[in-house]
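Sample log: Two-component system response regulator.
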Amino acid sequence: MRIVIAEDDLLLREGVAMLLRAEGVDVRAAVANADDFLAAVDEHAPDLAIVDVRMPPTHTDEGIVAAVEARRRQPGLAVLVLSAYVEQAFATELFSDGGAGLGYLLKERVGRVEEFLEALHRVVDGGTAIDPEVVAQLLTRSRPDSRLERLSAREREVLALMAEGLGNGAIAERLVVTDGAVHKHIRSIFAKLDLAPADRADRRVTAVLHYLRDTAGRGPVRR
């Protein structure tokens, strides 16, 4: 697995690189700004890019813009974005092209090594990984007239776990229910969010996008 890291914080950048190399991961480049990141993507054609949301020179959305551009240049590139706090507008921008092979984690998750590595591998394999804290905050901030209000409490739990990237079996284990019950809840979620079976997009990702888009534009959710 070839990885490129873009993070302007030297300690975090080198720390993540050391962690991944210790796990046998091929870290091809670890850079501090968006321009060097895109150059590294062009040079190394990585399987995964780990990108900070905010990077020089303005420390606003350079990371997200660069991540979107990197996926345009290299279709299918897996991207795992790191952020210091929940920024739903940026999360929505990242996932706007479909969502396969994408992740959005809070930086504190890096310290939980097993969870971080699990999310990394899930994204490389074409899945999604959204930080549980991101999911929780965005779900609780949805507007009263949102389609999400149609969901039952259990369906919202299932959607939150779907957003983290868990499959049906893992959701069943987490909620201590049967796989059949999870399948039934997911079908109900799709129906209540008006996601038809014939939709070309991944309906699991689209369901997550509903609440990301619903909460976008209200500014960052700070911890």
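Observation: The first strand starts at residue 2 and ends at 6.
Observation: The radius of gyration is 17 Å.
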